[in-house]
């Protein structure tokens, strides 16, 4: 083989080797870590807002993720910072942040010596804020129970004549007056004074009987005396 052919072969081999080295270096860098392997999203966890960052780096290179709240292109505050080790399936980290609708956040990723930059396009939150969990409807109040009918007391159930209330005592003038000699109207007072009442009739009957008995006794006495004189 001539010198020229040998030199040409060496040159070709060197070019191929350099190309392979560059290809391997590029592929190694791509496999190690890349900003395109990171993504961010604003979500709701119940009634609270959160920001999640997912790393799908299959090499699992540790990367520091920092989240900033933006306003007119400037950092307003630092929300938080966490370290994530990616995986082929994806590894997600969560930042608690009660974000407002249409807010803007900058997410910076640093994985030395591969990545030190922001995720392309800042994160903009949804236009609707997180809603509070709906409370269960209040239970229907129980139907009102009609008032119980009051039970009549024992005293109310007794007839008027059976009540224990004592009758008023008669006055002195009423208690001394006999039932049959109740004073009548003013026009009848003379009849009461002459004995024209039930007791007067009884007394008159007894007196008449005594008169009859007395008269009979006198009659028989006189008759016996006459008989004795005749003898």
TrEMBL record:
Signal sequence residues? 1-32
What segments bear the compositional bias annotation Pro residues? 138-150
Where is region (Disordered) located?
Answer: 131-197
Segments spanning the bilayer are 202-222
Q: By its UniProt entry, which NCBIfam families does this protein fall under?
A: LPXTG_anchor (TIGR01167), strep_LAETG (NF041528)
Q: Please report the name of this protein according to its UniProt entry.
A: LPXTG cell wall anchor domain-containing protein
Q: Which UniProt keywords apply?
A: Membrane, Signal, Transmembrane, Transmembrane helix
Q: What PROSITE patterns does the entry give? A: PROKAR_LIPOPROTEIN
